[in-house]
Structure formats: structure tokens, C-alpha cells
């Protein structure tokens, strides 16, 4: 029991420090408003009627196997539209306790990197407290749903976590600047 006390205390101090720093720094909501502006531009474009796509239903009626055996549970990855992307490593690891019957049974430690627009690393570092908070919420929910039980490193088991982490990053940094969240390291230490 004493072996678990120090990691649990460090976990709570780290989470508390991250949340406190996030609240203290606050930041502006520029990425969210940029995402809203981009959505508005897409809506304006959608309202234009150039006849594209009309009367093409007959051309696509054949059974060519398109769409079969696809996983529709994971949202599609946003592809970069600009010059390129860069990968930004989140500085500290994430520690997620696995609680069963009111006791910590194991700890999962993850390292993450983000794929963002070239030059977007400063935004990642500026919003790191918010990103860490969003990522921890996703990881805690995944752990509580049993996502880190059994063969948790299989691709099918990690797909919902990857998708939720990507959505969390895009909600903080904006959909047009964040393309993927990469799990660069994952380990589970059982008690």
C-alpha cells in the first residue's frame, strides 16, 4: 500500500498544478473563434449553387464495393491544406490511475505528440494546460469505461481513445490547425 501512496500523491499534485495553471493563465479563445470563422466560410460556400452533384445519382448506383468494411466509428483525420505539418511533443507524460472497487489497481502512463500546421508549436505550448486538462478528461473516461483493461494496446482497443484525443485537441486548438494526436508511448504498471 505504501508503494502506491507516492504515485497517487504525485498524480494529484500534477493534475492540480495543471488545472491551477490553466485557470490562472486563462488565455483567450482565439483558436475557438478562428474555428468558428472557418465554419462560417464553409457555410457560405455551401450556400452557393453551382449545380455540382445534381443528376449524378445514376453514375454512382453501381456496386463497386465502395464503403464496405470501413470503420465508421472513428472520425476522418483532417488533412493539412497548407505548406505542411510538424510534430510537437507534449512535455510531460500523462498518468492515469485504473480504479477498481475503490482502490487503484494499476497506473497507465502515456506520452503524446500532436501533428499541427508548420509553425503551430507555439500555440500548442501556449495552450498546453488546456490541452492537458482535455486529454486527461478523455483518458479518465476511457479508463473508467474499461479501455485500459485486457489487451488495451491492440489497434481496435486504442481507436476510440485516439479519436477522442484528436477531437479534444481540435476543440482547444481548432480543427484547421490540428490534424492528429499520436500516442508515442504507453505502459501499464499493475499494483
From TrEMBL:
Composition-biased stretches (Acidic residues): 34-58
Annotated family: Belongs to the FliL family.
Source organism of this protein record: Gymnodinialimonas phycosphaerae
One Gene Ontology CC term in the entry: bacterial-type flagellum basal body
InterPro entries on file: FliL
Predominant cellular place of this UniProt entry's protein: membrane
Recorded topology in the membrane: Single-pass membrane protein
Keywords tagged on the record: Cell inner membrane, Cell membrane, Cell projection, Chemotaxis, Cilium, Flagellar rotation, Flagellum, Membrane, Transmembrane, Transmembrane helix
Protein name: Flagellar protein FliL
Top-rank taxon, per record: Bacteria
Record localization: Cell inner membrane; Cell membrane
Protein's job: Controls the rotational direction of flagella during chemotaxis.
One Pfam entry name: FliL
GO biological process, one term: chemotaxis
Region described as Disordered: 28-84
Amino acid at each position: 500500500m505504501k508503494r502506491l501512496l507516492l504515485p497517487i500523491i504525485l498524480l494529484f499534485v500534477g493534475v492540480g498544478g495543471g488545472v491551477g495553471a490553466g485557470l490562472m493563465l486563462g488565455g483567450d479563445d482565439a483558436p475557438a473563434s478562428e474555428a468558428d470563422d472557418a465554419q462560417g466560410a464553409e457555410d457560405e460556400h455551401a450556400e452557393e449553387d453551382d449545380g455540382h452533384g445534381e443528376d449524378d445519382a445514376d453514375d454512382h448506383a453501381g456496386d463497386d464495393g465502395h464503403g464496405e468494411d470501413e470503420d465508421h466509428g472513428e472520425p476522418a483525420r483532417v488533412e493539412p491544406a497548407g505548406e505542411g505539418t510538424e510534430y510537437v511533443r507534449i512535455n510531460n507524460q500523462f498518468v492515469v490511475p485504473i480504479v477498481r472497487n475503490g482502490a487503484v489497481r494499476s497506473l497507465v502512463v502515456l506520452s503524446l505528440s500532436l501533428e499541427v500546421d508548420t509553425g503551430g508549436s507555439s500555440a500548442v505550448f501556449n495552450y498546453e494546460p488546456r490541452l492537458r486538462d482535455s486529454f486527461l478528461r478523455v483518458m479518465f473516461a476511457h479508463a473508467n469505461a474499461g479501455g485500459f483493461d485486457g489487451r488495451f494496446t491492440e489497434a481496435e482497443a486504442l481507436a476510440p481513445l485516439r479519436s477522442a484525443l484528436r477531437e479534444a485537441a481540435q476543440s482547444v486548438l481548432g480543427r484547421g490547425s490540428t490534424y492528429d494526436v499520436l500516442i508515442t508511448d504507453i505502459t501499464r504498471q499493475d499494483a
